[in-house]
UniProtKB/TrEMBL annotation, chain A:
Protein's name in the database: Enzyme IIB component of PTS
Originating organism: Oceanobacillus neutriphilus
Entry keywords, A to Z: Transferase
Domain called PTS EIIB type-2: residue spans: 2-92
Family matches, as InterPro entries: PTS_EIIB-like_sf, PTS_EIIB_2, PTS_EIIB_2/3
UniProtKB/TrEMBL annotation, chain B:
Residue stretches making up the PTS EIIA type-2 domain: 10-160
Protein name: PTS galactitol transporter subunit IIA
Pfam families: PTS_EIIA_2
Entry-linked PANTHER family: PHOSPHOTRANSFERASE SYSTEM MANNITOL_FRUCTOSE-SPECIFIC IIA DOMAIN CONTAINING PROTEIN, PTS SYSTEM FRUCTOSE-LIKE EIIA COMPONENT-RELATED
Domain of life: Bacteria
CDD domains: PTS_IIA_fru
InterPro entries, per database record: PTrfase/Anion_transptr, PTS_EIIA_type-2_dom, PTS_SugarTrans_NitroReg
């Protein structure tokens, strides 16, 4: 089971939109996962056992796990590349 | 204060569109565009400052396949009525990209008056469809009249309107 965190500034709207796309991507890839949504400020406490962080905002800290930008899920830019990065980050 | 049950229904019309905006900075643009919300009494006094502060902390610039876009918004506590404003700049101003924080030339601004997070998501989904449509964005960027901009956006938000 892979743990994925999706985070945005407010922690709700943008991350929900991105989370929907991440779920879709992982379902299609047949990856077993648990996904949680959070805000940037809470990310500091929640990342400890995460396998991947997908954000819609600038993350300055290094959480020691792969962190990807999900902004392309809003605009369609590089959407396929982001999906591939998500899958490869969670494939052993 | 507006407590009617329609506050969650989106308000958007030609009065909420500004063309050929001359602004020297993103702050100036945000001040000018947010004035449209005050004119309609859609927001509380704190809205303008809240938008500017949020943009500093969590920038909303987005690269698209067409013009650079920003989607500034504020916490729902500053908003009375679900609403949208669209500003098209004469010359691009610098915002910052949402995730990288890098400077980004922005020509189209969708400013959101959001009353709650559920509404925010619905609005973002509609906007996301516009942001993915290169031709539509280019048409909005090059529109000569507010009516043209309104007609470009209407199909995406029609169901959300009051």
């Amino acid at each position: 089971m892979k743990k994925v965190i999706v985070a945005c500034g407010g922690g709700i709207a943008t991350s929900t939109l991105i989370a929907d796309k991440v779920r879709q991507t992982l379902d299609e890839a047949g990856i077993d996962y648990r996904l949680t949504q959070t805000t940037l400020s809470e990310l500091v406490y929640e990342n400890s056992d995460a396998d991947l962080i997908v954000t819609s905002m600038k993350v300055e800290s290094d959480f020691g796990v792969p962190a990807l930008s999900g902004a392309g899920f809003l605009t369609g830019i590089n959407e396929e590349a982001i999906k591939e990065q998500i899958i490869s980050a969670l494939s052993d | 204060m507006n407590h009617n049950k329609n506050r969650n229904k989106l308000k958007f019309d030609k009065d909420m569109i500004m063309l050929n905006i001359c602004a020297s900075s993103s702050d100036e643009l945000l001040k000018e565009l947010s004035q449209l919300f005050y004119d309609k009494d859609y927001v509380h006094d704190s809205f303008k400052q809240a938008i500017i502060k949020r943009e500093e902390k969590y920038p909303t610039g987005l690269r698209t396949t067409s013009a650079g876009v920003a989607i500034p918004h504020a916490d729902p506590v500053h908003v009375k009525q679900e609403s949208l404003a669209v500003g098209i700049l004469k010359d691009a101003v610098t915002f910052h990209e949402m995730t990288s924080g890098e400077p980004l030339n922005v020509e189209i601004v969708f400013m959101l008056g959001i009353t709650d997070s559920g509404q925010h998501l619905i609005m973002l989904k509609a906007l996301s469809e516009i942001l993915r449509d290169k031709e539509k964005l280019t048409s909005i960027r090059n529109a000569a009249t507010k009516e043209e901009v309104f007609q470009c956006i209407l199909p995406y938000i029609n169901e959300l309107l009051e």
